[in-house]
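Lay summary. Proteins are chains of building blocks that fold into shapes, and those shapes determine what they do. In this project we predict the shape from the chain. Here is one chain we studied, written as its sequence of building blocks.
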Amino acid sequence: MRVAVGSTNPAKVRAVRRAVRKAWPDAEIIAVDVPSGVSEMPLSAEEGKRGALQRAAAARRAADADLGLGLEGAVEERPEGLYLTGWVAAVDRTGFASLVQTAAMPLPAPIAEEIRAGAELGPVMDRYSGQNNSKQHLGAVGFLTRGLVPRSLGFYVGVGLALAPWLRPELYREAKDIPAG
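And here is the predicted shape, written in a compact code that computers can read:
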């Protein structure tokens, strides 16, 4: 089994390695830098989904892998406020795709205001956390939870959920495929 992840971000790669190794201990995991095809700071669920699907498909093709995984962070305006979300997509050679949302959490008002004004979350979180490139480490969710839920853990859960159709194919293959972008 050859699995490609559409990112070289250490937090994302760590999440994929942990989940894939648990599912398939002998899998070869390849990190490839591919474009998401969406903005640097996806500002909607639709943009987050699209970025994850496009990353998964591009990674699979770039590495000629059996399975491609795309992980995309996003923010989404909801009636309750601005939420930090994550999306994970998995796409196989046949084009069969799985798409899941990771946990979602509200952003604190001062951070949400900056994002609404056009700032990207990564640099904003770098300033609050005092870290450089915090999205490659604990990320926003990790900083906001004081390390209780690091970015890689949130994405690990998403990767595990996205792999369900390959772990229980007898139950999922009859479901309507999600377009792989």
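What the prediction tells us: Residues 4 and 63 are 6 Å apart (CA to CA).
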